[in-house]
Design a protein that fits this description.
The chain has an eight-stranded mixed sheet. Helix content is about 40%, strand content about 15%. Strand 5, helix 3 and strand 6 form a beta-alpha-beta unit. It contains twelve helices and eight strands. The protein folds into two domains: about 210 residues, Rossmann fold; about 60 residues, no CATH class. The protein has about 280 residues and is an alpha/beta fold. The longest helix has 14 residues. Keywords: Hydrolase.
């Protein structure tokens, strides 16, 4: 199923399940929806789950402009397309940031925000160096190959996919790196290609946002927010502390033995935290 945003860009969407409406916001920026398992978990617990590929990504039309405001407007187009008055928003990684921005812009349209594996409202410089060290350690013996691919001025689609699989393998917890690679391969199948322009433009914009202003804005939210962390996420979880402290109605759930995709290692605990109330 597709919808057309008000500026004519076509967005891929899908709906599964019956019950309380939930819209999922995938990570990136520049990636596509890989939240099949999340959709299944929530649909099994009485949710109507609405998914979409953000503009320029995956099965959606590869055309900008790319910005936080444009992403918020596209998310609202998804809500309107399905005829939803108010929804639970679940965002993962960058999608958690997008869901937060949408909630700040349209609080009357969000009944509950589930903020999964996000990186908070502070500058990336506060957490990124530690993340890079953790990433390199988690890639392990395949680090030289990842560095080789990363250093290429131009990569084929096969090389781009290989590099992403190696990098994404670090997002899964546990010592079994072969299993982590298999899980990353599953994420990359089917492969739609990373939109590097989208990634660069949105990341550049979020890097200039004021933590102080976001902190103050979050203080005005009155709907419940659930922050879900994987204990072994390679992104430092203390980066989310200032967001948690700014929210008036917040619950934080840390899942033991889980990484950046906590529904993979702790599906039941994740579903208990994220499912509609």
């Amino acid at each position: 199923m597709t919808l057309t945003a008000e500026d004519g860009v076509t967005l891929w969407t899908e709906r599964t399940g019956e019950g309380a409406p939930v819209i999922l916001c995938h990570g990136g920026p520049g990636l596509w929806d890989t939240l099949d398992d999340v959709a299944r978990l929530l649909a099994d617990r009485g949710a109507a789950v609405h998914r979409w590929d953000q503009r320029g990504c995956g099965r959606s039309e590869r055309r900008g402009p790319y910005s936080v405001a444009r992403s918020v407007a596209d998310l609202d187009a998804v809500r309107r397309h399905f005829g939803l008055d108010a929804v639970t928003l679940l965002g993962h990684s960058w999608g958690a940031r997008l869901a937060l921005h949408y909630t700040l812009a349209h609080p009357e349209r969000v009944t509950r925000l589930v903020y999964v594996s996000g990186t908070g409202i502070g500058p990336d410089s506060g957490w990124h160096p530690e993340f890079v060290g953790n990433l390199r350690a988690a890639i392990g013996e395949r680090l030289p190959r990842w560095e080789e691919l990363r250093s290429l001025e131009r990569r084929t689609e096969a090389e781009e996919r290989e590099m992403c699989v190696l990098q994404w393998s670090a997002d899964f917890a546990g010592p079994d790196r072969e299993r982590a690679l298999r899980r990353a391969e599953r994420m990359a199948t089917p492969w739609f290609g990373v939109n590097r322009v989208c990634n660069a433009e949105i990341n550049a914009e979020t890097a200039t946002m004021s933590e102080h202003q976001l902190h103050a804005a979050c203080g005005g939210l009155r709907m419940p927010v659930v922050i879900v962390d994987g204990e072994q996420d390679i992104r430092p979880r203390d980066a989310v502390d200032s967001l948690e402290q700014s929210l008036p109605v917040v619950t934080r759930v840390t899942l033991t033995g889980a990484g950046h995709m906590p529904w993979v290692e702790s599906p039941e605990a994740f579903a208990a935290a994220a499912a509609p109330r």
